[in-house]
Design a protein that fits this description.
Blueprint (H helix, E strand, L loop, with lengths): L26 H7 L16 H14 L1 H4 L15 H7 L4 H11 L10 H14 L11 H4 L27 E4 L11 H5 L18 E2 L13 E7 L10 E3 L2 E6 L3 E6 L5 E6 L13 E3 L2 E5 L4 E6 L5 E6 L9 E2 L5 E3 L2 E4 L2 E2 H4 L7 E6 L5 E6 L21 E2 L7 E3 L4 E5 L3 E2 L3 H4 L11 E6 L5 E6 L15 E5 L2 E7 L4 E6 L5 E6 L6 E4 L6 E3 L1 H4 L6 E4 L13 E3 L4 E7 L2 E6 L14 E6 L9 E7 L5 E7 L8 E3 L3 E5 L4 E6 L5 E6 L9 E5 L2 E8 L5 H9 L11 E6 L5
Parallel strand pairs: 2-37
Antiparallel strand pairs: 1-7, 3-43, 4-5, 5-6, 6-7, 8-9, 9-10, 10-11, 12-15, 13-14, 14-16, 16-17, 18-21, 19-20, 20-22, 22-23, 24-25, 25-26, 26-27, 28-29, 30-33, 31-32, 32-35, 33-34, 35-36, 37-38, 38-39, 39-40, 41-42, 42-43
Length: about 725
């Protein structure tokens, strides 16, 4: 089940169209991703039976346990199929989608060879092991899977992570305490943050991921040592803590919010918000006034009292529907007393009249103020870019990364994900640009009105979305907005008008064969444009992304952007998706992966680019992918972590490693720095789960190993000299 099959004819010298380095994707690797999710539902009715579970258990033992373990707990190369990590990746999918996925991916040497009944039985076994009892084909997994199935009577215990009896997890405010001397966060504080604080994801409105603190610098960073650490809940962990007045607010997988003393790590209060755990953490939470705001995978915004952790209000984003669910994976942006929130989930991808949207809520009451729909309909600006495709069948446009804000212009900037289904042939949209998919949208914060949009990948067809952070920089009298998407193109636009000002290819790409010199519009290779249902097409980079959610940093001292990047390639085949109401909601494609030419097997790349010229100043390449955002400081250093468990500081001028440490599992999340009592600290989380940025490297670089557990927060500081 874990084999990799290589085409001996592959060489690194191939540059454009490539003979694929065929990778047999393991069931477990792709399961955690949902990489090859198809739409067609398994036919049938009613819940699974005990006989199916027994049969599925036997088939799992014969075909899957070697990689994933007899207890489904995973291994260094295959993710867990039970508990928080599994539910984090699969919770919003249906049982039928799980069955269909297994048919398309398992076993890798001969997908589909086990027979329909066996795949259904294996899915029933996996669901039963996650606590499901009455799952039918249309059951949403999160709704029926209540947690790992106890293997023994209550009170029994063994050493298996998956088989240990787990008591019911209490919800609500489970640890009572009070933050003393809390200062309400104002608009002025958010606009001009105290250097000692870290008030929002990526530090500031401009998404610079930069701190003016300089106590830790290029000279003394070699002396950095662990100050304290904090174990975190299991599940997909991409946390982005915030700090204010010496207090850290931390979002754990499973909708767990904690207030910790940022100097000592002492727990002040803990609130397990929501009705149930999704198994994954949100990228970021927000502070404003006397509240801390966090979203959940069920598309709720919760307002908690920052002093006590008590619930103040909660708001459902969008209406709940029997058709599916909205969800969020990143927290809100606070601007002008509004919580501006992006969205994802199956309802964004389904064929329905309501399209995906960005929305704003009153921070005091949680009431909706405005919505902006991210898929253009007939009559909207850009509505004609969908060709003759009826409004009902226009889908996608998720905004799953928190936006940026320019207080002077009063614009908020968001990246919009790809159209759905992924491939043009599947979605039947012709060669149009499918606005506002794969665009930067600039919205008026007061009204939600569209000020401008720029489409970075018109008609994108390879799951290479442009949804990630928008970095706002002022340089040489220009107000700029930078972004980089999965295609690995660094885009430079005027942030007042959206005008194209330049671009830079940061990794090897062969999807575009030219760019318009005036507009920057890329042109896809002709065979990509002409691709038909059932035909494989090759492309670099992959859905892992030349750049993904691991945010870049802007370092003003060098006027550089330092970007974590990834190098890999894929083959992709489109599948037919019927145009029926309630359909859509999936990829409509399957994929296989191979190494990027010229990379020498190095998936990870960290590189610095001059803001004015876009010239690559320096680069570092390595086997393991970088799995954190990059944090830079006035001390002349940048911090970044990788899948190989290494957290390091590099010189912002050269990329040279100045300090590093090895942590217990892969380093993943958003590093931050803050100061309490005159002492500067640097914090980072270790984490697991999270989709293609992890799982594509797991296929291509199986030699990079890490434990399938170990979520934690680590806080470092210089020694306290006497």
């Amino acid at each position: 089940m874990c084999s990799i099959v290589a085409d001996p004819g592959y060489t690194h010298s191939m540059r454009k169209l490539l003979t694929p380095f065929h990778i047999a994707i393991t069931f477990g690797v792709v399961t955690a991703l949902g990489l090859t999710m198809m739409l067609v539902a398994q036919q049938g009715s009613g819940p699974f039976t005990a006989a199916q579970v027994a049969s599925g258990g036997a088939a799992y033992g014969a075909s899957c346990a070697a990689c994933h373990g007899a207890d489904l707990s995973g291994s260094a190369n295959a993710p867990t199929l039970v508990g928080g990590l599994f539910l984090g990746d699969w919770g919003d999918k249906s049982a039928a989608q799980l069955v269909t996925f297994l048919q398309g991916a398992m076993p890798p040497q001969s997908p589909g060879s086990l027979g329909e009944q066996t795949y259904s039985a294996i899915a029933a076994f996996i669901l039963e092991q996650n606590g499901a009892r009455n799952a039918g084909p249309d059951s949403v997994i999160r709704a029926v899977a209540t947690g790992p199935r106890p293997a023994q009577p209550t009170g029994a215990f063994n050493n298996s992570r998956a088989e240990a009896v787990i008591p019911p997890i209490p919800r609500g405010l489970v640890v009572i305490g009070e933050v003393k001397n809390y200062t309400p966060v104002t608009d002025a504080m958010l606009r001009y943050p105290d250097p000692n604080d870290w008030l929002m994801i990526r530090h500031d409105y401009q998404a610079h991921n930069y701190s003016p603190l300089r106590q830790i610098n290029a000279t003394n960073v070699k002396d950095l040592q662990l100050a304290w650490e904090w174990a975190m809940n299991d599940g997909t962990n991409e946390a982005a803590p915030v700090v204010h007045d010496g207090m850290m607010y931390l979002n754990n997988p499973g909708n767990i919010v904690q207030a910790l003393d940022a100097r000592t790590g002492d727990l002040i209060w803990e609130n397990r918000i929501g009705e149930s755990s999704t198994g994954s953490s949100q990228r970021g939470l927000a502070l404003y006034d006397d509240k801390v705001f966090i979203t959940t995978g069920q598309a709720h915004i919760y307002a908690l009292d920052a002093r006590t952790g008590k619930n103040v209000w909660d708001t459902q984003i969008g209406e709940k529907s029997s058709e599916g669910t909205y969800s969020t994976s990143s927290g809100p942006l606070v601007a002008q007393g509004k919580l501006i929130q992006g969205l994802g989930g199956t309802l964004c991808a389904e064929y329905r009249q309501e399209k995906c949207f960005i929305s704003a809520y009153d921070a005091e009451s949680g009431k909706l103020i405005w919505k902006f729909h991210t898929i253009a309909k007939d009559g909207d600006p850009g509505g004609d870019t969908w060709g003759k495709l009826p409004n009902l069948f226009r889908a996608g446009g998720e905004t799953w990364i928190t936006g940026s804000y320019d207080p002077d212009l009063n614009f908020t900037y968001w990246g919009v994900a790809q159209a759905k289904p992924w491939m043009r042939a599947s979605r039947q949209s012709g060669n149009g640009a499918t606005a506002y998919a794969n665009s930067t949208v600039a919205l008026d914060v007061s009204t939600g009105k569209l000020e401008w949009y720029y489409n970075h990948a018109p008609g994108e067809t390879l799951d290479l979305d442009e949804v990630f952070e928008r970095v706002l920089v002022d340089s040489n009298g220009q107000k700029l907005v930078f972004s980089a998407g999965k295609a690995g193109i660094l885009w430079k636009n005027d942030r007042k008008t959206g005008q194209y000002l330049g671009h830079k290819e940061t990794v090897f790409q062969n999807i575009y064969d030219s760019f318009d010199s005036k507009t920057g519009a890329p042109h896809f290779r002709n065979d990509i444009v002409e691709n038909q249902i059932g035909q494989y097409v090759q492309s670099c980079p992959t859905s892992e992304g030349g750049h993904n959610w691991h945010a870049m940093t802007y370092h003003p001292g060098t006027n550089e952007l330092i970007i974590p990047l990834a190098q890999s390639c894929q083959e992709m085949i489109s599948q037919k998706v019927e145009l029926v109401a309630g359909g859509g909601a999936a990829a409509g494609a399957t994929r296989r992966f191979y190494e990027s030419p010229g990379s020498n097997g190095n998936i990870g790349k960290l590189a610095a680019y001059d803001v004015d010229t876009l010239k690559e100043v320096w680069k570092v390449e390595q086997r393991a992918p970088f799995m954190t955002a990059v944090l830079s400081t006035a001390g002349g250093i940048a911090f970044v972590g990788d899948m190989n468990r290494v957290f390091r500081a590099v010189d912002v001028k050269t990329g040279k490693t100045l300090w590093e440490t090895r942590l217990e599992t892969s380093v993943q999340g958003f590093p931050l720095t803050f100061s309490v009592g005159g002492r500067q600290y640097v914090a980072v989380t270790t984490g697991l789960g999270g989709g293609s940025p992890r799982m594509v490297p797991a296929v291509l670089a199986g030699d990079v190993k890490y434990p399938p557990y170990g979520n934690a927060l680590h806080v470092f500081a210089l020694p306290q000299w006497r």
